[in-house]
Amino acid sequence: MRMTNRRRTMAVWMILTVLLLVLVTAAGWHFREAASLTDFSRKNLAPCPAYPFGTDFMGRDMFLRTLAGLSSSIRLGVITAAVSAVIAFFMGLAAAVLGRTADAVIGGLIDLIMGIPHILLLILISYACGKGFWGVTIGISLTHWTSLARLIRGEVLQLKESTYVKIASRLGHGKLKTAFAHMTPHLLPQFVTGLVLMFPHAILHEASVTFLGFGLPPEEPAVGIILSASMKCLVMGKWCQALFPGLLLAGAVLLFHFLGQGLLLLWDPENAHR
Amino acid sequence: MKKRDRAIGAGLILLLAAGTAACAGGRGTEPSGGQSQTAEERGGGSRGTGDRESVVVVMDPASEPASGFDPAYGWGAGEHVHEPLIQSTLTVTTADLEIGYDLATDVRVSEDGLTWTVDIRDDVKFTDGEPLTAEDVAFTYNTLRDTSSVNDFTMLKEARAVDGDTVEFSMNRPYSIWPYTMAVVGIVPEHAYGPDYGEHPIGSGRYCLKQWDKGQQVILEANPEYYGEAPTIRQVTILFMEEDGAFAAVMAGQADLAYTAVSYGDQQVDGYELLAFDTVDNRGFNLPAIPSGETDDRGVPLGNDFTCDRNVRRAINVGIDRERMIQNVLGGYGTAAYSVCDKMPWYSEESEVAYDPEQAAELLDRAGWVMGSGGIREKDGKRAGFTLTYAAGDSVRQALSEETANQLRELGIEVQVEGAGWDVAYDRAQSGAVLWGWGAHTPMELYNIYHTAAGGSYARYSPYSNETVDSLMDQALACSDLEESYELWKQAQWNGETGVTQDGDIPWIWLVNIDHLYWSRTDLQVAEQKIHPHGHGWSIVNNVDRWSWK
Fold first, then answer.
1. Which chain B residue has its CA at the smallest distance from A216's CA?
2. pTM above the 0.90 mark?
């Protein structure tokens, strides 16, 4: 009885979290025009009821800008996490199922990518793809699949030794059919949790690479840009332009992390019965 | 999953750390032996130590000469011109930007403008004790002609020492403004010039290089053998810091003079005052003057269908309220700009226009762009507008671009503002507007901007071409008298019939000249400055030898 209650509370919290994130994303999308509006008659205002986060040196509403920035971060996170999770799924599966050579090649690739610091590789790819939205998207997608791929490969190797998979292949099912029909259902929980847990990474990396000037262009409302612009104000004691957007970014990241952990608890066969 | 937790934690910490690191950046570059006194205990003099013969100046990191103090690699005669301090020059620019003499005692030019003869002083020694001769001058100019990667010396055929104190320059083409080039080229010693000259410069100027800690500071010491008046400031320490670091250094009392930006202008610091110097450091944007359709030989598209109409460009020029822009973006620290060379001897006053939104609207109507839905003008179903690109990371250019967009929207023109790097901006300027910064102590800038490029059919930075303007500038360069050439430069801007002003083709819109701002200790007397050119760097110390402590 107590267990079901905990599961249910968890589920409710998670739904609320999702709703909150969706709301932020939608609001940011809605205000994306207003967020870029400059009005020099209201520049450098301190936080007040009309502008909860104040305004910047061109009179842009920092609250709307932060919202729009978070929203674009989340949308970018959705795309990149989905793409890299799919890459990870197929790479992991292929490594485990397609024999030793495939395993060696993919294993090597994973080692290669993981061997280079994420942010460095990300900057290189983003720069090579002409920066901007697509540069960052491609960069993050191509760098974040490795650990999930490795996880799935290990999972599949374990499954290959399990009785029901062995029976299936004795019954004449080919490698691919076994992989998709028999293994995939078992891998789904890992896959979905891995996908959700990739969000925080994607969002943080998007913010960092933009902060460093290799990501989104500077007129775009993005958290990385807001933070790097606010650096200059810190020495003048205008801390609020950095603090609030930073806190919101950290909050969004933690919410996604919470979602991922929650999914793991509810769904993973090993954890679900706790 | 533990590893992921840690990775996210590390990411968050990194973001926070990036913030504190940026602030600490300034502290890392402070000179050793910091002061522990409080402001009240300090006496006058540099850094409050009472040393009345030294000064500590903060410049931005970009001002540090990457290839050292070698004129061949842009020291003094580079992208941003200034007096080379360590070396002497043949001529100098005076306070009103006419020509005076340093090493030269007489400058003559032949009738055809192809031979310049310069007599030089014979009592000048380099800091290693060797005398400075005409051979050294000829060697310097021939070296720069062959190696200078940053400045144009293609007009020089050869420099030749006629005797010990006379140099003769043979030119490939007449170049009447040669004295302005001579004012920024520091003379190097032939006997001590080599690949490491930039790091160990030997000159005959007011100062010699005592110490250079790359990425941190440069210390200059007065040259005891200097042939002119001895510098009042014996030691100049130059620190290189980002804007926020420079401000922190001022707050900590570590600097006597530090550059700063408009965004810091409303701050108050005890013991310091904010100095604003007039400049010709202008900002403006180009408007392609030809319709789209063509491409250049690299495939870059040329022209713009909206800005190719002269009346549209005229409307934009009178439709911008420069005073409002200065108040909004520069907090009042600037002057309206009407040309690339405001206040220079070769500036044509015909460039000046008054803000007149009604005339602007009328001009746009006449051009066929009539008010459509949503307050944006239209013509044949097309919306009036263009893209304005600014250098990403330059907040002043960004704000000027946004303010331009705001003001032009009132006229019914939709301006799309985009930040980009210089890697793409030059190509974008061929088909759209780019926010530029110019301003130099030579009329050559007019030529670079408006004259049809050699071998091309349009000017280099923005497609535009006018035969009369070209020919007037060619005449100005061919002129053997400098005063006369100023008149021709003025006519190239507007000769009564055509030109590049409001009544002419107006292919560039000039917005503002940005004041150069500095925090200065209240008891430091900075000598009167000549109008600063583009580049918020070494110009300030052009006359540091005449500064003093009150």
1. B419
2. no
